[in-house]
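Appendix B. Raw example, untouched.
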Amino acid sequence: MLQRSANPTSRSIALLRLVAALFCLVLASDLLHGQSDAPAQPLDSVIAVVNGQVILASDLDLEMRVFRFLPVGDQDGFAPRQAMERLTTRALIEQQILQEDPHGLDVDPKDVAANLGDLRQNLPGCKRRDCATQKGWTAYLATFGLTPERLDEYWKQRMAVLGFIERRFRSGIRIAPEEIQKYYQETLLPQYPSAAEAPPLGKVSSRIQEVLLQQRVNALLNDWLKSLQDQGQVEILDQSLAAPPAPDSSTGTSTPDGGTL
C-alpha cells in the first residue's frame, strides 16, 4: 500500500525551513570567506577594564596616533605602556566627571571646531600643508592614520576633561607676590650668567605666576588621581601594557597625558 503524502501545509512549512537553512549556510560561508559586499573589519579586543568600563585595542591605537600627531613630548620614548596609563587615568577622570554631572562630558560642537581651528593654524606640520581647507586637513590627518571624525570625538573628550580640571583645581588658587619674587630670585636669576643679563621681574612676573599656578594645579591633580587609582579597580589584561610599580610614593602620579591630555 502506498503511504499517504503529507498535506500541502506540511510541505510548505518544510520547504520554508529548508530555504531558511540554506540561507543561513550561504550567509555563514560569506562571513567566513569575506565574500560580503562590505569590507572586512578587524576584530577589536578588550585590553583593560576600569571599574567595569572596557578599554579596547582600538582606543590604544587612537591614543598612540594622536600623541604622534601632536608636537609635544618625547615622540620616540612614547610607548604603548605610556598610552595605556593615559587611557586608564582618563577613564577614571571621566567616570568621576559623570558621577558629579551626567552631562559633564558634553561639549558644544562649535567649541570643539573652534579649538581645532586654532590647532590647525599653529601645528608645524600644517605650515607645509593646506590645513585651512577640509581637503588639506583630511589629507594631513591621514598621514597619521586619523580621520576628522575620529579626531573630533577624541578632542571633545579631551576638552571636557581639561575643562573639569580647570574648574575643580585651578579656580580659587591665588599666587602671592612674595611667591613670584621668591621664584624670580631663587629659580630664574641663577639661570643667567649675571643678574644684569636677566629680564626684569616686571616683564616676567605674569609668566612666573602661570608657572607657579600650573605647579599648584599639578600637585592637587596628582593627589586626586592617586586617590582615584587607590579606590578604583583597574585591570590590565595584557601585562606587557601594565605600568611597573613606582619605586616610592614620593614620585607622585603623572598627569593624564604628560600635560597635554
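End of appendix B.
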